[in-house]
Amino acid sequence: MKINYVEKKVALKKGENAIICCFENNRISTEIAEIMKKEGITSEQLKSLGFKGKEGETALIPSSGGKVFIFTGAGKKSEINEEKIRKAIGKGIFEALNRKLKKVAVLNFNIEKKGEDLQKALAEGILLSAYRFNKYLKEKINIEEITVYGKENLKEEFFRGQILGEAANLTRDLVNEPGNVITPQTLAETAKSLSKKYGFKCKIFTEKELEKNRMNGILTVGKGSKNPPCFIHIKYKPENPTKKVVLVGKGVTFDSGGLNLKPEQYMKRMKMDKAGACAVLGIMKAIGEIKPDIEVHALIPAVENMPDGKAYRPDDIIEYKNGVTVEIHSTDAEGRLILADALIYGSELKPDLMIDMATLTGACVVALGNYTTGLFSKDTALAHSLQKLSQKTGEKMWHLPLDEDLKEEIKGTQSDIQNVGKTRFGGAITAALFLQNFVEENVKSWIHLDIAGPAFIEKEWKYYSFGATGQPVRTITEFITKNR
Ligand code: BES
Ligand code: MN
Ligand code: ZN
Predict the structure, then answer these.
(1) Do 29 and 110 lie in a common domain?
(2) Deepest in the core among 88, 174, 393, 467, taking most CB within 10 A?
(3) Cα torsion through 34, 37, 38, 40, rounded to 10
(4) Nearest to 373 by CA among 432, 305, 450, 484
């Protein structure tokens, strides 16, 4: 999809349709009325459709010249914010795709409000809502060209939104690819080509190096698959970095559950179990574009969790590089086992901030529903600022406790800890407490994000279509490059 950002008087091209932002009970501006008039459309027509410009409302009017005018409501002008812009343009784009329109002009979205990056949100809304994973479909419905009429002074902001939207869409492309296409090795190749494009350092650890670095979680979980596991380390280092950030993403390219095989209805969609890894890659793409003055390391433990004669089993006990021993109680709690190696490795880099993201527990989805990420951190101020930012980006997060009283749940009998709690209660918390054992003292702050709910959605939601959402790419990119 081609996106043009132009600062000119609106002039619709041949075959170009229009999406027009309207506010509740706001009169159509003379500029827009003029364009409508040219195409033989009146505001009376719009009124007769009962369109008032409320949030979520749309109205379609075909013009005499064969164009389609899509009016989309954004609610009261005084209450406008970034998320309302994304939703309004998203609705408009969805209508355009329903109508199989190929060329669209975006009009009247040139809104400014203090404290809100509305033009950034517009770009994000366009990219996120126009995204479809249709490479395996015979009939591909796509918008080919979008022309955004905007002010020159807001161009940079729009470009920023474009970077974030494109980064999230890369993540969606990777998550949507199935397990027969993406294996630990193809994840590594993706990391390498991304690194080549942006000039990052990239190191892939395969079996020998995994052994040398005593990455026993990755080696253990990877044993059951004919696709060998690996560990990916990407490094971005500017000249004089102001801080060091480590990102960790769970890269289970398919989670069958292993010998503790998942039942049919739970195994479905487990291609999404690499969403944390893919989010980290998306964030690195954005980092490559933005080139911030912070040092960023991306760490991805990549495995496929399969049952096999060589697979690891319940009761197995493994020892980690930091000396902690773990007894396996379920081979389906594999994410925490591979993240542990990455967290130990990340700790050795002595970062100011380490953030891991993982489709870690079904329990987190039970707790917060499908649309909210579980956010864990002992640094309450940091957690609150991230939670607040997530409300702005629309990638909702909610702070959950690292409840010390639940440590008992994962205390082992013949090992230091076990990989599953003794009861199923607080499953998202016990998983986070498990990870905490591998975050060493020299990490200033640590955040764990359980994205099991919002990484992949089963039905259309806001400006997202079915499938991967690319969460939390936009929020984490903004958080590390802007907030602190
Ligand atoms: N990948 C799953 C978690 C998951 C569930 C992600 C639903 C996305 C949607 C994880 O590896 C897993 O299987 N977790 C188990 C943990 C249990 C064995 C303690 C779960 O949530 O049931
Ligand atoms: Mn699992
Ligand atoms: Zn998993």
Answers:
(1) yes
(2) 88
(3) 170
(4) 450
Nearest CA to 226 among 288, 179, 264, 272?
179
pLDDT digits (tens, 9 = 90+) for 177-213: 999 999 999 999 999 999 999 999 999 999 999 999 9
Dist. CA 333 → ligand 2 center (Å): 5
Note whether 121 and 183 are same-domain residues: no
Find the 362 Cα to ligand 3 centroid distance in Å.
Answer: 9
pTM exceeds 0.85 for this model:
yes
Range of the domain at 142: 2-151
For the annotated catalytic residues, the residue numbers are 262, 336
> Among the atoms of ligand 1, which is closest to the Cα of residue 455?
8
- pLDDT at residue 51 above 60? yes
Atom index in ligand 1 nearest the CA of residue 330 equals 18
pLDDT digits 0-9 by tens, 13-37:
999 999 999 999 898 889 999 999 9
* 271 and 126 share one domain: no
| Claim to verify: residue 28 and residue 131 sit in the same structural domain | yes
Intra-chain end-to-end CA distance of the chain, in Å:
34
